[in-house]
Amino acid sequence: MPQIQGVVESVVGNPGANGRTRYATVIGGQEYNTWKPEIARVANEHLGQQVTANVTVKPSQDGQYMNYYLDGILDGAGQVPGQIPMAGGQQGGVPMQPQIPVQPGIPMAAPAARGMDPQREARIVKQSSMATAFNFVGHLFDGAGPEAMEEAEQAALGLAKRLYVQVLGAPQTLDDEIVEGLVSQAPEQPAGDEPETW
After folding, report:
1. How far is CA 143 from CA 134, 156, 157, in A?
2. Residues contacting 2, CB < 8 A, separation 6+
3. Could you give the C-alpha distances from 73 to 3, 24, 32, 122, in angstroms and in order?
4. What is residue 191's three-state secondary structure?
5. Residue 123, domain extent
6. 195 in a structural domain
7. Which residue has the higher pLDDT, 45 or 192?
């Protein structure tokens, strides 16, 4: 098992969607990951200290990048803390089973957002709806001349409103009155943003 030496710079827990926590530990400028809270706890106890650590480095399944795993932090005698020496003085050993659940006291990163902020989603849908509508109507009015600009603009805005309402999952009846009501009920913008108008 390869060993590295370096200062433990940080240990941060990252909750995963599967209920497991991945502990990202930076040693000597390189991030190593472990899913074992006892290893993360020992690393956290050595923050700012020079350590020797057992690590595994292997390519990803597709071979595009390398995975760096923290397998343990060694104490001064070359043993992973929490292990019982094997008979005959050999190093290594069998991990001790904790009697109580380990609570590593490691800072946890905010869980990844499952969905998008509704205001941001509404702005993105609005921008996309307008771009699609103006592109489509622009092709329809291609070569019509400046006298058709107002008519083209009205057609594009009407189509953009319908697309916006349809994408956000509104009723399928796209009566102009319903569209206007739903567009006016769109999520409000955060303070500091200029209000947008259709």
Report:
1. 15, 16, 19
2. 54, 55, 56, 57
3. 9, 14, 12, 48
4. coil
5. 118-184
6. no
7. 45
Examine the fold and report which residue of 95, 110, 131 is the final residue of a domain before the chain moves on.
95
- 141 and 81 in a common domain: no
Q: Which residues pair with 52 in a beta bridge?
A: 5, 74
Across the chain, what does the average pLDDT equal?
Answer: 75
* Residue 15 token pair: 């909750």
Separation of alpha carbons 95 and 93, rounded Å: 6
| Residues 77, 82, 84, 90, CA torsion sign | negative
Pair 24, 61 in one domain: yes
Where does the pLDDT of residue 78 fall: very low under 50, low under 70, confident under 90, or very high at 90 and above?
low
- The 3-state DSSP class for residue 139 equals helix
Provide the residue type at 58 as one letter.
K
Angle between helices 149-167 and 176-184 (to 10 degrees): 70
Would you place residue 53 in the very low, low, confident or very high pLDDT band (cuts 50, 70, 90)? very high
For residues 89 and 10, membership in a common domain is answered with yes
| Residue 160 amino acid letter | A
Q: Residue 181: what residue type?
A: G
